[in-house]
Design goal:
The protein has 2 domains: 251 residues, Aldehyde Dehydrogenase, Chain A, domain 1, CATH 3.40.605.10; 185 residues, Aldehyde Dehydrogenase, Chain A, domain 2. The relative contact order is 0.14. Helix 2 packs antiparallel against helix 4, helix 2 crosses helix 6 and helix 3 crosses helix 4. It is globular. It is built from 15 helices and 22 strands. The chain is an alpha/beta fold and 453 residues long. The strands form 6 sheets. Strands 12-15-16-11-10-18-19 form a 7-stranded mixed sheet, with helices on both faces.
Length: 453
Amino acid sequence: MTVTTSINPYTSAKLKSYKNHTEEEVSQLINMANKRFYSWRETSFSKRKKLMLSAAKALEDNKMEYAKTITLEMGKPISQAIAEVEKCAWVCQYYAENSEKQLQHEIIKTAAHKSYVSYEPLGVILAIMPWNYPFWQVFRFAVPALMAGNIAVLKHASNVFGSALNIEKVFKDAGFPENCFTTLLVGSNAIEGIIENKNIKAVTLTGSGPAGAAVASIAGKNFKKTVLELGGSNALVVMKDCDMDKTINTCVQARFQNTGQSCIAGKRVLVDAAIAEEFIKKLLIKVRELKAGDPMNEETYVGVLAREDLAEEIEKQVSASIKAGAKLEIGGKRQGAYFEPTVLTNVTEKMPVFNEETFGPALSVTTFTTIEEAVALSNNSKFGLGVSLFTTNIEAAEKLAFQFDEGAVFINELVKSDPRLPFGGIKQSGYGRELSEHGIREFINRKTIYINK
């Protein structure tokens, strides 16, 4: 029998032990999910809407309980954990209200008496999800999948099994039929067999590049569709005509929320050399004001990383960059799973904090002299998830948007996910889209219907 024990990264205390599902149990759960699909796909949108609004209410009613589990399991500051649960309620409400319209038949005029595209569910969809947003990452997949008539099966990160079971509870409490949403308590070594199960029709993964490549390879061999949301190294491009105070506030939030553990965090500040000195001075003041400490304290903004090895990794990247010539302006020290909010200046393209994904509270600063140089610096990344551009010249910024090799360009705002907008990247940030009508149409069969009298 395999047992997984969750550890509080702030106190190092053991939280709870979970008995992992056996291979036979996993097979049985997937079989039951597949059987449920054939009745679930026949339900009306009005029925699904009612259930999904009930899920939103269950999230709102129990957000403190669920947020506490998130914080204890992976160290997210409690105020941010509450906000995460609330955002999940929002995505439930959004798809409850919009799914029917997004999936209505698309009439196409041809020589036929009638022809159209029907958007139909695929079946059981496997989600492999990470620990950094243990509720949001799951809900932004599960909600559109269920509203489309699919069935959701979750393999969550092993350090957040409590959150995984809480998510399953949300759908049960909302009144969804049994086996519409199932959590599999298994380790990564079980993933290949799960993907190969004939009843799994498609796979979505949010995680690292190597994990995405492995999953895509297995799914590809079995002719199953995948959606991959992988890493990111978003640039924060600061023009000399920006509103400096607002820009700095946004940059600090973009980098340090969730203790920097976000694929879409702004990780590389690219600032016009003409304002760099003033910008850095004000930036450091804001970073020093960030309250670090016990993640259960509502005033804490920066907590611990989810595991000590993650803090060790960001420490190595920062140290190697300093050794290569970067200047440490603030932070840089580690204690267990805690890593101080850190700012490095004089950063060049060859340093780890520039050319690798930094998954923690470390912000690099690089200067440029022309917008062409800024675009080139931003695009000099294996990732392509998003970029933020700060300027008061909105018209010029909008014209620049197409030059950035990214899945999203946000002007005067941090890159963020919104149920109404498609979310996803290019290059090694993955492929496919989540959220909006684009996301709900990822796991459907676009069936052509052609009718002649």
